[in-house]
Amino acid sequence: MFDIPIQALMGQLLIGLINGSFYALLSLGLAVIFGLLNIINFAHGAQYMLGAFGAYLLLNKLGLSYWWSLLIVPIVVGATGVVIERTMLARLYKLDHLYGLLLTFGLALIIQGIFRNEYGSTGLPYSIPPQLSGGKNLGFMFLPNYRAWVIVASAVVCLGTWFVIERTKLGGYLRAATENPQLVQAFGINVPRMITLTYGFGVALAALAGVMAAPIYQVSPQMGSDLIIVVFAVVVIGGMGSILGAIVTGFGLGLIEGLTKVFYPEASTTVIFVIMAIVLLIRPAGLFGTQK
Amino acid sequence: MTPAERARAEGRLHRNVFLLMVAVLVAAPFVGIYPVFMMKVMCFALFACAFNLLLGFGGLLSFGHAMFLGMAGYVSAHAAKVWGLTPELAILVATLCAAALGWVAGLLAIRRQGIYFAMITLALAQMVFFFSLQAPFTGGEDGIQAVPRGKLFGLIDLSQPMAMYAVVLVVFLGGFLLIYRIVHSPFGQVLKAIRENEPRTVSLGYDADKFKHRAFVLSAALAGMAGATKAIVFQLASLTDVHWSMSGEVVLMTLVGGMGTIFGPVVGAAVIVTMQNYLAELGAWVTVVQGVIFVLCVLLFRRGIVGEIGNLLKKSL
């Protein structure tokens, strides 16, 4: 067990932390949407993929850099989320929540199918922005600048979201509407608009994760579909009760996955699902959840 | 009409529709419909009926039913090819394996409800997918190919298309009748009660978790029977059948046909398999078309085909 070189261990931990950043960003978006809309956004993986393709297209068709993508793509993809919420999801709130899941699953199939027709299944490369190329030698390992940026940026976005929801007045309205939308509406707050914007924000988070992922993973139509299933398991493990829980679980499970790659690579694809099974047996509500 | 009379009239109606379905299935190969196509429809129809037992009557949306279809397919292909079992034994062994897998998966999944249930089953199915990708006996990306159809009871050669067709017909009708029986048994009534109002059912003294778990195992076993038969018919068990998109397809079949109806999943499976057959040359557009059907069904057409017909006739089909 101790004959593993420190470079390999640190390398895998770094990859784990990177994966964990994306788990955290995506499960955070799912948790925010679920809190207010009570639906699981199955299209989240497809919207993450849209983010990566958005960055790719902006660079190759319009010549806009990574930094412009980071700003434009979440806004545009978030806007499509607003349209989806207004035209489709809004009709389903009175029905069983499962219909929301089925609708977003259908949307995911449509989005992925269209991109697979257009770009095939092979991944497209997206180069690291020049400002972040290269890396630092930390003595025990080599840290590429871009990866450090992804970890820091996603931690900042996650904590920022947490701060807005848990510590500001706007977040207070949001949490109140999660508990009792009728009462909040009676106080004169436009709850339907808040729901729409919340969905748009959750989708924008997924797109932002997609832009950040583009230089690390290859940009491909199915990049989101396998990831989103892992993120679902992350959500079940963390429980959707708390924002901070989603963030901590995301990073933590990324690290555990990285460690598994070092010590028992065969299990690295399934370790998160095994942890989910164990958590369900011991604490069905999830680590940070409260059973209703 | 008293409730008893109404139930009897409904029973007669179901019997007549059932006989019509049997007639169509028996006649199909004789009027020039390709038998392999019909066998595919029947395998998927059984799969969708098994799924509908859980969703339509238990209110539990499993997004991981491909794990039972696919795993049973692997087991039956392995049993027929490597162990040299006769097809009926291969199907039996595979069905039991699917039931065992369902027992474990159900135990975990019923600990949460609603969309959590869907996410947990999906995650467990993904675990089974990765297991199938890596385990030595599944053949990885290649799957198990050239599975012998073998001889039924060691006597009847199933490489004859009509013999195979008869076996699939018997398996499908047997599974269908079993599901009908389950739905109309006291067990099925309790299941429906749990779907409608779980706390009240619990307060009446029923152990809801136990009923849900049993329904899950039954559904898994029947889905496995469909997968096992499918592997023998197509002489192939592959990763396609364990992939999450297969779990999505069975949801779509049930939704299109009408969830919670008796005959809906059969119609839905026939529609979707036919569509895939005709749109096969469109490649990835099939996914887009399926997605569009999903969206349209959810937004405009929630009762499904059979549900809409039943609503027009004011009968439950």
Strand content of chain B: under 5%
What is the highest CATH level, the class of chain B? Answer: Mainly Alpha
The third-level CATH topology of chain B is: ABC transporter involved in vitamin B12 uptake, BtuC
Number of strands of chain B: 2
Number of structural units classed as domains of chain A: 1
Largest sheet report of chain B: 2 strands, antiparallel
Kindly provide the radius of gyration of chain A, computed on alpha-carbon positions and rounded to a whole number of angstroms: 19 Å
Distance between the termini of chain B: 18 Å
Per CATH, the architecture of chain B is Orthogonal Bundle
How is this structure best described in words?
The complex is a heterodimer of chains A (292) and B (317). Chain A has 292 residues and is mainly α. Chain A has one domain (8-224). In chain A, 71% of the residues lie in helices and 2% in strands. Chain A has a two-stranded antiparallel ribbon. In chain A, β1 (135-137) and β2 (142-144) form a beta hairpin. The termini of chain A are far apart. The mean pLDDT of chain A is 89. Chain B is mostly helical and 317 residues long. Chain B has a single domain (13-26, 35-313), classed as ABC transporter involved in vitamin B12 uptake, BtuC, CATH 1.10.3470. In chain B, 73% of the residues lie in helices and 1% in strands. Chain B contains 13 helices and two strands, in the order αααααββαααααααα. In chain B, strands 1-2 form a two-stranded antiparallel sheet. In chain B, α2 packs antiparallel against α9 and α4 (87-109) packs across α5 (114-134). The longest helix of chain B is centred in the C-terminal third of the chain and has 27 residues, at 208-234. The A-B interface holds A 34, 39-40, 88, 91-92, 95, 97-99, 101-103, 105-114, 116-117, 225-226, 229-230, 232-233, 235-236, 266, 269-270, 273-274, 276-277, 280-281, 284 and B 61, 63, 108, 111-112, 114-116, 118-120, 122-124, 126-127, 130-131, 133-134, 244, 248, 251, 255, 283-288, 290-295, 297-299, 302.
